[in-house]
Amino acid sequence: MTATTYTFKDKLIAWLQLTRFDKPVGTELLLYPTLWALFLASASYGRLPSVAHIVIFTLGAVLMRASGCAINDFADRKVDGQVKRTKNRPLADGRLSAKTAVLTFVGLSGLSACFLFFLPVQVFYWSLVAVFLAFIYPFMKRYTHLPQVVLAMAFGWAVPMAYVASIGTVDKWGWLVFVAYMCWTVAYDTMYAMCDKDDDVKIGVKSTAILFEKWFGDKDVYFIMVLNGVFLVIMTALVHRFFGVWSACGLAVGLAGLFAMQYDKIKTRERLNCFTAFRQNAWVGRYVFLYVAVLAVVQYG
């Protein structure tokens, strides 16, 4: 049996798949909340965030999401081939080596760290937590049913970093943004995990999708909606605090409509419907970002 030879083009496509540059939804789910945090932190002082901060955190989010995907595939390289959705990932099917994934994680993380030279030194210390969380997250599914919580912390840590960069500290509003983002992330990543639940049970991988079903039975989707509801309430309260009651009402109505569409999908528990509901969260991110950004420009621009 001869080994398969891959061309440079094959390797490049495989690397783009490793880093998920071909699937930007995950990047959006990390990026938009970081931008909310920048706008809301600046709103505490009645101003807009600097263009430099927006550019730096945007590039950082893109690179860190890609590096996180690389280390995730490294951690899952021996199990991805046993899961329907992931069996064609580049490490699982042999197009890339484990070494390539590790070097990609280190390289992209290092490149992202270069942007820290343009931010206050305190942000560097906060960033160490983000890198640590991004590294350990992929391994958590072997030890706990709460890997989605670790992912939420890893993604969400950009929120306090944005606050420290903008106003030098994380005030109570900043921590509320962080809690809201945690709830939303656990909700949408549980939808994602529902796609693989049957395979995960067979191979012994843990997730909140499995845990919630164990705890709540066929009411598990209601708990996901509770998490989305907490996110909606907190974000509405924050918009009310900085932009007024009518602005808050508009945000709440829009979010309620988006979450209602997600519930309509996940209540079936069907694999493709759950994946569709997960992807719809990109619209949640876009909506909240545009809503907050427009309000901030109108009020402080």
TrEMBL record:
Its main location: membrane. Pathway: Cofactor biosynthesis; ubiquinone biosynthesis. GO terms for cellular component: plasma membrane. Keywords: Cell inner membrane, Cell membrane, Magnesium, Membrane, Transferase, Transmembrane, Transmembrane helix, Ubiquinone biosynthesis. GO terms for molecular function: 4-hydroxybenzoate polyprenyltransferase activity. It catalyses: all-trans-octaprenyl diphosphate + 4-hydroxybenzoate = 4-hydroxy-3-(all-trans-octaprenyl)benzoate + diphosphate. Gene3D superfamilies: UbiA prenyltransferase (1.20.120.1780). It holds the Pfam family UbiA. Its cofactor is Mg(2+). Its EC number is 2.5.1.39. It is a multi-pass membrane protein. The chain crosses the membrane at residues 29-48, 54-75, 96-118, 124-140, 149-167, 173-192, 221-239, 245-263, 283-300. InterPro entries: HB_polyprenyltransferase-like, Prenyltransferase, UbiA_prenyltransferase, UbiA_sf. It is found in: Cell inner membrane; Membrane. GO terms for biological process: ubiquinone biosynthetic process. Catalyzes the prenylation of para-hydroxybenzoate (PHB) with an all-trans polyprenyl group. Mediates the second step in the final reaction sequence of ubiquinone-8 (UQ-8) biosynthesis, which is the condensation of the polyisoprenoid side chain with PHB, generating the first membrane-bound Q intermediate 3-octaprenyl-4-hydroxybenzoate. Belongs to the UbiA prenyltransferase family. This is 4-hydroxybenzoate octaprenyltransferase. It comes from Moraxella equi. The gene is ubiA.
